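pinging the channel bc i need a second pair of eyes. not urgent but kinda urgent?? the chain im working w is below, pasted from the shared doc
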Amino acid sequence: MGNHPAEVLREALALPVEARSALIDSLIDSLDATVDQGATEAWKREIELRLKQIDDGTVELISWSAARRRLRDQLER
């Protein structure tokens, strides 16, 4: 791959889906210079809370298309 970001992007986009996914993971990991020691445990608690809310029926689940529509509406404001 070349050194120019646009060239790197063009070549990366030509990769198979699995390779692009692995590349994304590697790039995101490279941004995490400092590790928040409590983050993993905090995310675990948050996930458990949200799963409980789903199981208890205390939250309304929506489809991905509805969520995407809401996000687009918010971004257009």
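so The chain is about 70% helix and 0% strand. and The mean pLDDT is 91. — does that match what u expected or am i reading it wrong
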